[in-house]
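Troubleshooting log. The previous run stalled partway through. Resubmitting the same four chains, unchanged.
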Amino acid sequence: MRDIQNDHDDRQIPIRQAGIKNLRYPIAVLDRENKLQHTVGTIGMSVDLPHNYKGTHMSRFVEILVELEGRISPRHLGSVLKTISKRFDSTTAHLELRFPYFIEKQAPVSMARSYMDYQCAFLAAYDRRRRPTLDLVLEVAVPVSTLCPCSKAISSHGAHNQRSTVTMRTRSRSLVWIEELVEIAEAEASSPLFALLKRADEKHVTESAYSRPRFAEDVARAVALRLKADRRITWFQVESENMESIHNHNAYATVIGGAART
Amino acid sequence: MRDIQNDHDDRQIPIRQAGIKNLRYPIAVLDRENKLQHTVGTIGMSVDLPHNYKGTHMSRFVEILVELEGRISPRHLGSVLKTISKRFDSTTAHLELRFPYFIEKQAPVSMARSYMDYQCAFLAAYDRRRRPTLDLVLEVAVPVSTLCPCSKAISSHGAHNQRSTVTMRTRSRSLVWIEELVEIAEAEASSPLFALLKRADEKHVTESAYSRPRFAEDVARAVALRLKADRRITWFQVESENMESIHNHNAYATVIGGAART
Amino acid sequence: MRDIQNDHDDRQIPIRQAGIKNLRYPIAVLDRENKLQHTVGTIGMSVDLPHNYKGTHMSRFVEILVELEGRISPRHLGSVLKTISKRFDSTTAHLELRFPYFIEKQAPVSMARSYMDYQCAFLAAYDRRRRPTLDLVLEVAVPVSTLCPCSKAISSHGAHNQRSTVTMRTRSRSLVWIEELVEIAEAEASSPLFALLKRADEKHVTESAYSRPRFAEDVARAVALRLKADRRITWFQVESENMESIHNHNAYATVIGGAART
Amino acid sequence: MRDIQNDHDDRQIPIRQAGIKNLRYPIAVLDRENKLQHTVGTIGMSVDLPHNYKGTHMSRFVEILVELEGRISPRHLGSVLKTISKRFDSTTAHLELRFPYFIEKQAPVSMARSYMDYQCAFLAAYDRRRRPTLDLVLEVAVPVSTLCPCSKAISSHGAHNQRSTVTMRTRSRSLVWIEELVEIAEAEASSPLFALLKRADEKHVTESAYSRPRFAEDVARAVALRLKADRRITWFQVESENMESIHNHNAYATVIGGAART
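Second attempt completed without errors. Output:
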């Protein structure tokens, strides 16, 4: 059967990335307590394609994924990407894995337990011409509550507050756990969120948020300070975005720190 | 050229609805000030198909839409649906038109003007066997702010609040303006939202919301009372949904009133 | 601490549904091979609220969910809903659980194995005044391929085809497996989809789809015939929707059969 | 009233971008035929914030937008961004404007007219320390049809095809019209899409696509060649993404050309 992807292409245009996107697959991620967490990944995989080849054998991406049997941890991403690069005979390879991740939390007063969901991603790039060959970014999005300092300062009672999302992206020398980034964002917002809060917890969360007003700018800066102080982290980006409760649009602030891979 | 849609089908299965969905088209909607508002519609159109026909001539839906030149008002929907039904020789016809609608608002203290966006829909069904032949539902979704009565009552300071959406669907004897439904929802929430608020407005909105705590249940009931009292309205559904600022999930309440078309 | 939800409400407006929406939670679903499949649920839960109560104790929904420890199967939904109704002292209760579900499939020629994802839902309603008290709808959405019969009939070569979704909702006397509905939809489309196809498989899938042209109407009817013939199934709705490869809008057809719960 | 945003911040962390996101506003865009096209914008605006200021006065973004009265064209973006930078006394300013844009097209045989929708964006960045101070990227996403060359080559009949999206981003010395980029993408795919096609058109489109098989890689390269040959264009990125009709995931290819702004 003809292998048309292997045909010669004479347009002299190299392809930066050719691959697949938006593939859902069952995966298992190792959590800090050393247990496998079963979740659902949304996956992108790609390679570069030299100018003289017509097409990419897209099915090979899925074959590699099937071989992994769903076990994907940051520790193995280097070898996964090397495998991709070898199978495709490519110079570069990319893997993007997005997944909801659950952490069991306790309500602040009743100590009632429930799971909270966090959207996470491993963004991995391999380039066989570089040292190190692997560039890995961890992304964690943490839903929190923020209470507006301006609204509190100028109002005789109350202050507008809202659900916000703190999205952190980090590059690091050694492993940073998802749980660690979640703790940082939740500590620096006006309040963390919980799936389950009893009345005594609701009182605690309301009063605690009122005593900790934070602009989007404040949250971004405070998280940035914490990431900057972590010797493992070599680069980070923090974005804090508020679903404003007085507007139908969002407010946000972004801080970038450290040296991006050049 | 063969017209395969006209082929005979002998499976004895009538099609309840066959049509098109998710077509974006430029439209103009008449607003209360009698001006045409240009916006972008997302459109669905369908008809029933008797058991003995194989297929529907889907292009006819778009032809009818093109003939309308984008002018779609509730007043004309009856004749539009009659046209659809005639062209397809169908017993029933449906048209669903969703669009963002803008209303100019003034901030409460500074009186600064800006536009707020509201997601609206006309949901129209025609059945030539019924009297009246047209069934028309108007849907308007109004983003508002709600402040939690429980959180206020139990906390020594502050109260959690959040962006919420009040979605109203109404059937009526005579025309109800989108602007009227927006005013009702905004009046019955803890506070309306605005695109533009200066500092004096933010103080006003914060204090006003703190003085008007509302559960999702309260907003749904208060809006329902207003719709019930309107002699034009024969049926309604109200849903109030809060993007809780202390949870990563939403709370909601639904009230239904009047006699649905039977 | 004051329990403001228990306050008396004198507006004489009963709440049809009050509850939570869009809660993500780790769940385990029993599959046909009798193994637990770990996946991620998006959950809604609600109850009715009599006219004389002000509010609902929303945290109780999450407490019940936590007690289930993520094990949710159609067999247990009756007792789950009864529990909800008792805890809230409500007349009715609803639970809506949406989740991606994975089935291992084999490519038609190479027999290569991979997982395909299907969006599923359990839509359960309880009413203590009815017999039986539980109304359960299973929803399964199956992505397939459809090839246009008209395009094939009138063109000298080729035929436009596209990714489509067949969404089935069923009520049944006894358990219908997700796997059974998936098999029906895949058998009646122009072709099933696969995550992994080698070149020999791609040839097979292309030729097989070309030999089985199907309108959206055809797929909806053929699936309806199969569901109608199943003695367990008492009601169904089938919708087949094509992401047309010649348009930027979708075409669809819906068939409803059996007696809906009245 | 206290202006808490003006408070001093001593954390030594500058904010890269602080602003608003996801604001919907009615806008009018100039089209190639020199007419104003009314559409709906989704808008983001931001500035940098020096390390010693606590917060940004977010309402000023909306004030500037209101002053524009919805008239936003690439020609004016330089002065709009300069205004933002002056009002905020910032070094940099960003404006991101996304909108659906409609072009009237004629079916290839019947010449029937209808509008097609294209998602477009102006991505504008201002930096007062640079020359030129304005960096403007135009983004246009064009839905097209692609037919798989491999599937055609190996199959005895037919070939799988699907709806695809070609997304182009360009920087240019002088104005490039949205209409020009749309024409390039539609010319280099297997076929353009249309809202309205009669049977003779459907035959034409089917046969024409069958005679022009294109991988995602082919489309990306062919569009890249056209953009490279345009003397006005100094940088571009092309991404072609197929909603594969044989998979439930997408295939894509990206080409980047020219010198990015450094």
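Takeaways: Chain D has six helices and nine strands. The beta strands of chain D are 15-30, 36-49, 92-106, 113-127, 134-147, 161-172, 191-192, 233-242, 250-258.
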